[in-house]
Amino acid sequence: MSRFFTASDSSSESSSEEELYSEEEEQSEEESEEQESEEESDEDSSDEEEGKTGASKFLKEASDEEESEDEERVTVVKSAKDKRYEELEGTIRLIENAEKINDWAVISSEFDKLNRQIPALIKQNDGKTPKLYIKAIADLETVMLETIEKQKVSPKKMNAINTRGLNAVRQRIRKNNKDYAKDIDLYREDKEGFMHEDIVEEALPTAKKVKRSLLDTSEAITGADDEGFTMVGAGGKAMQYTPESILKHLRTIVEARGRKNTDRLEQIRVMERLRDVAVNDYQKIRVLLTLISTRFDLTSGTGSQMSQEQWKLAEHEFSELLEILESTQEIVVIENAEEWEDDEKLPPIAPGQIFRIPGSVVSFVERLDDELTRSLQHIDPHTAEYVERLTDEGALYTSIVRALVYVEKLKENSKLDQSQESLNRVVMRRLEHVYFKPSQVVTILESNTWKAIPSGLDSAITPREISNDTASLVQTLCTYLFQNSEGIIRARAMLCQVYFLALHDQYYKARDMMLMSHLQETISNFDVNTQILFNRALVQVGLCAFRAGLVYEAQNSLQEICGSNRQKELLAQGLQMQRYSQISPEQERLERQRQLPFHMHINLELLECVYLTCSMLLEIPLLAQIGSSPDIKKRVISKTYRRLLEYHERQIFTGPPENTRDHVMQASKALAAGEWRKSADFINSIKIWELMANSAKIKDMLSAQIQEEGLRTYLFTYAPFYDTLSIATLASMFELPERKVSAVVSKMISHEELAAALDQVNSAIIFRKGVELSRLQSLALSLSDKASGLIEANEKTLEQRTQGTANAFERQGGQGGRGGRGGRGGQRGGRGPGRGGGQGGRPGGQQFTGGALGRAIQA
């Protein structure tokens, strides 16, 4: 008894537990045999005897068994290495047991213990990580991800301890597994092959007498599951996965799809086993179609995104599906096909005939694209995780091209009624992955894609030969959609081509295509995503015009987007909450779903800088022209720029510029004062220009534009003070050639902006002096205009208030009415003594003299 209860060392704990389990089984079997052979009276007496001496008998047998085991163990000497490995196995066994009962508090503590044990094992293993440890952390990560997915799909409240444990494991395992990422990938690619070497190399010495334990039984069941396709259900009933039962299991899974409390992860495991059992192409295609759909069902909600692991598995299975479909000629996956109803037998597929399976390859590739986009929307773009996730776009683009090749093959087959719409959709998806990228990036993407596709496959729409010419590729895709589609797809294809042309500095082609499309007239009738694409194309055309030095065209294109101060919303690059706007949670959720991934964004700071610079080059000469000619009607080119300029002028103290706006405002102030060099220095010192290609060329263009606009501003400002002005003087002041100065002055004269004549003989400008108003007269005219506007506004207000009593006024005649029977005062010439009445009434609504302003004018 004392020997049974003495504490054993850590190396013998697991073996003693196994012996205890086996002895209990042997003892129960002996007791059952005795009870069957003896009579009832003997049974009662034996039971009483056992009740008295059961414990001592058990301890005696246990001690005898341990003595025999000790005799056998005498020859076995365990090293420190073996003891450490046994400790590692014990810790892993505790983690696996805790996983079965979902006890994450235990898993968290044991995982820390596991990581404390591993450095010594790596050191004694010549720097190699034990494969048993790799298996444990890889499986733990998979279980952790599955638990999180279950919580998202069907949330069940976990207690606080379990929740803390799960969060702790989630944080530590990601950081920990990065150090062993290569080994984990090798393990997941081939689990059996990876662990087989470990078993051979690191097999521990075992005792001569091998006893079967409960753990051995579970391992045997697992082995049978892998080799004999046997699985034990919850009730202990064996589930057989055979090639003949595949269709029945698929039918069961499809019928359970969409039901409440359906364990989709379990369905996925079942289908993965069915895929391994499948023996022909038909079975594999059916299993893969259902398996991919079930993976997408894991994130059926709109607020969640597909995990990277599940997405990669779905993409790999989709590639496998395409490989099978490309290799077989008898089976096709096509929409609107009739489903095979008989689950007892396979359909008869004769050589030369085509068997149709209902499904949609295009829908799968669209869903893969949408899930990747949704995942990128929820990742911080300034982290390495975003860049890592973005690398999956290469595999997705390859799947899109392969799907395009397959759908083309279906379309070419005259026996199949393949709709043109599916082909248009997949071509559009390919175009949407290309149009916003520079040519160099697209060339690399196309090259890697065609390397991954088998050499025997080629596209009729976009052959391999044009993959090196990005412009031809985009032109071919857009032309195909122009000819074979209509509605939204056609409009989106045109906008994609406009964007691509503008991105590659082909302004006039992009502008002509945008004008010929007439989309600016009907864009409000399209969906929101197409309107966003229209805004992006419009902005890109404006940036292209700016790079070409066309300031007016650039400002005109950017005015609609940048003038509203809602660039983020209009370009789907973020939510810009207005001060007084109230948005419902549903609308906010929809807005967030429309957001573009970060790598598709247009730099908003660069956009604002271009817009304000163009507005400065147009507004400053206009303000100078209005100041010198008060008769000209005041027109505003950019209200946003005017507000910023007025705010800057109201500042009492202005320090050195700190951001883009400050630089532009300081440059505007210098340009208005005639200091064009200072203005050019402010503009060229903006660091955002470095983000544009050929930044030095753009700075030179801006300096030339500032020189020219500085000349125009100077002429508008100081024309009243000159009779004649030498062109050579102007040329030296603004460092421009005399030919350029003459051209600018001639243009101003021809547009009637400058009242002057150009004396080409003497190279001088002769200004014409007209009747000029003094500053006091100009202010008086301005006050008169404002007073007239105020009077008219008061007249309209009074007319609205007295509209209901008009008949009473008419009955009163001239006694207090507005104009008596003669009508409304001076407008109709009435003679009543009412307001504005009498013979001296002023025409045109100027007779109202009420209020303080009226008395001031009357006086």
From TrEMBL:
Residues 15-50, 63-72 have a biased composition (Acidic residues). Residues 813-853 have a biased composition (Gly residues). Residues 1-77, 797-859 are annotated as: Disordered. Residues 598-772 form the PCI domain. Keywords: Cytoplasm, Initiation factor, Protein biosynthesis. InterPro entries: EIF3C (IPR027516), EIF3C_N_dom (IPR008905), EIF3CL_C (IPR058999), PCI_dom (IPR000717), WH-like_DNA-bd_sf (IPR036388), WH_DNA-bd_sf (IPR036390). GO terms for cellular component: eukaryotic 43S preinitiation complex; eukaryotic 48S preinitiation complex; eukaryotic translation initiation factor 3 complex. It comes from the Eukaryota. One of its GO terms (biological process) is formation of cytoplasmic translation initiation complex. One of its GO terms (molecular function) is translation initiation factor activity. Belongs to the eIF-3 subunit C family. Component of the eukaryotic translation initiation factor 3 (eIF-3) complex, which is involved in protein synthesis of a specialized repertoire of mRNAs and, together with other initiation factors, stimulates binding of mRNA and methionyl-tRNAi to the 40S ribosome. The eIF-3 complex specifically targets and initiates translation of a subset of mRNAs involved in cell proliferation. Component of the eukaryotic translation initiation factor 3 (eIF-3) complex. This is Eukaryotic translation initiation factor 3 subunit C. The gene is NIP1.
